[in-house]
Amino acid sequence: MTRAVILLSGGLDSATVLALARAAGTECYALSVSYGQRHQAELNAAARIALAQGAREHRIMHVNLGRIGGSALTDPSIDVPTTPGEGIPVTYVPARNTIMLSLALAWAEVLKATEIHIGVNAVDYSGYPDCRPEFVAAFEQLARLATKAGVEGTPLSVRAPLMNLSKAQIVREGVRLGVDYSPTVSCYQADAQGRACGRCDSCRIRREGFVSAGVPDPTRYASLPGQSGEKIV
Amino acid sequence: MTRAVILLSGGLDSATVLALARAAGTECYALSVSYGQRHQAELNAAARIALAQGAREHRIMHVNLGRIGGSALTDPSIDVPTTPGEGIPVTYVPARNTIMLSLALAWAEVLKATEIHIGVNAVDYSGYPDCRPEFVAAFEQLARLATKAGVEGTPLSVRAPLMNLSKAQIVREGVRLGVDYSPTVSCYQADAQGRACGRCDSCRIRREGFVSAGVPDPTRYASLPGQSGEKIV
Q1: DSSP helix/strand/coil, B15
Q2: How confident is the model at residue A69 (pLDDT cuts 50, 70, 90)?
Q3: CATH of the domain at B153
Q4: Pick from A65, A135, A139: which is nearest to B106 by CB?
Q5: Over chain A, what is the mean pLDDT?
Q6: CA max distance for chain A
Q7: Could you tell me if residue B73 is inside a domain?
Q8: A223 falls in which pLDDT band (50, 70, 90)?
Q9: Which of A42, A108, A219, B43 could hold A5 in an S-S bridge, CB 3.0 to 4.6 Å?
Q10: Which residue from A93, A105, A141 is facing B138, i.e. has the nearest CB?
Q11: Mean pLDDT, rounded, for A196-206
Q12: What domain range is A101 assigned to?
């Protein structure tokens, strides 16, 4: 049985990655990282998803990237934008995926897992450099050189099964596999109850994904200014 | 002026790396990582070294690798060996250098630093896979793909200036640059006062380095069984 560490953020994409791995019969160890993001709602969501989808174990590691800042997600003084801008947005967290993959690599090595799965995507995404196929390939190459397992001849594979899917395709794939997306949280600034703002880049891409897939959007949205609790879809 | 993030463990090697960078006129930001190692003495040493050698700033980041274990340095149930063994020793911490370089990468990106320096060494070392030149080259390649700076055309360099030096050469280089090695802690299991055990692999390599360099060993050793406080050099 293949054993894999699955990076599980609590969002839509990584929930789908876990479902795909489980459907392929993989023994899944889910890893979430508390890195100083704006809210804990996505970590609570990750715990629910790991349980619902039969991960063998779920661990949360902590690394305080707020100590470094440089992103709207880790520095409260930088606002999350609600209108699309030019270039790489301020929600980009420096080296976040490199750090998360490194932590997954450490756990994979201890578990003697042969795969790491990550839900990055280069179609409907925000232009982050560490979501591209060449980044994933470079990390896999690094992983093979960095570890005892690599030196001893059982190199790790780094899989990004959503890389070339649109958000709508990801949603359809998840629905096909029976994923319940209602607990997932994609919003950059969800409230304490995990309700989405409906306006940030991540909410916009997610909402459009459900619309394009023709799947009802189960996202719980917070009320918008001037509205009282109604959904904005 | 070149700006660099210097990984500073509090040991002999990284103290030398910082001295080399300062001698070259580099503006140095020292980063230490509290990863659940057996003692805090090396982090205290790092703070003293950063100050003594004129780092512009020193930060300590926390990531609890004890949550993952798999090493004598992060799992108290695994003893630190005091006799050399075969293969990669149990003091190897899975993915440690990958994780530390990733954290350095995050800070480098925020600082707009163009270099990361790490004190890894492939001559007098313990056979760890993540101390080899091919590992450092792979991380540099990854860093160029992972970051906004890389995408925008100012890629980072990852420097390992001690890679091909023997421990004795490192000591001589440091002495030439005026490094005071007395506060540095290399021991895997130093006591709360930072005194070295004198018996682990790291102590052995360090001690032999001073002897070969013909430099008096300033290491503070704890008393050994059957001895009372005397130095074991």
Answers
A1: helix
A2: confident
A3: 3.40.50.620
A4: A65
A5: 90
A6: 61
A7: yes
A8: low
A9: A108
A10: A141
A11: 91
A12: 3-181
Q: Does A69 touch chain B (CB under 8 A)?
A: yes
Q: Quote the CA–CA distance of A181 and A50 in Å, as a whole number.
A: 12
Q: Does B109 touch chain A (CB under 8 A)?
A: yes
- Which residues are within 8 A (CB) of B10 and not within 5 positions of it... i.e. 6 or more apart? B32, B41, B42, B43, B44, B45, B46, B49, B184, B185
CA A67 to chain centre: 22
Please give the Cα distance from B25 to B42 (Å, whole number). Answer: 26
Cα(B15)–Cα(B20) distance, integer angstroms: 9
Contact B1, B26 (CB under 8 A): yes
- Residue A224: is its pLDDT beyond 70? no
Give the DSSP H or E segment for A30. Answer: strand A27-34
CB proximity B141 to A under 8 Å: yes
Domain count, chain B: 1
Residue B106 identity = A
Identify the pLDDT of residue B61: 94
For chain A, give percent helix, strand, coil, nearest 5.
35, 10, 50
Distance, in Å, from the CA atom of B143 to the CA atom of A101, rounded to the nearest integer, reads 13
Q: What is the pTM of this model?
A: 0.91
**Least CB-CB distance to A61: which of B63, B110, B134?**
B63
Q: Is the CB of residue B125 less than 8 Å away from at least one CB of chain A?
A: no
Residue A104 lies in a domain: yes
Pairs of residues, one from chain A and one from chain B, whose beta carbons lie less than 8 Å apart = 139
Check A130 against B150: CB less than 8 A apart: no
pLDDT-derived band at A226, boundaries 50, 70, 90? very low
Q: Does B63 fall in a domain?
A: yes
Helix, coil or strand: residue A213: helix
- What pLDDT is attached to residue A37? 80
Beta bridge partners of B229: none
pLDDT tens-place string over residues A105-127:
999 999 999 999 999 998 877 78
Reported ipTM = 0.90
Q: Does the beta-carbon distance from B64 to A61 stay under 8 Å?
A: yes
A166, two tokens: 């649109």
Q: What angle do CA A61, A62, A63 make, to 5 degrees?
A: 130
The one-letter amino acid code at A162 reads: L
User: What does DSSP assign to residue A9?
Assistant: -
Q: Indicate whether B31 belongs to any domain.
A: yes
pLDDT class of B223 with cuts at 50, 70, 90: low
pLDDT digit string, tens, across residues B18-28: 999 999 999 99
Are residues A138 and B142, on separate chains, in Cβ contact within 8 Å? yes
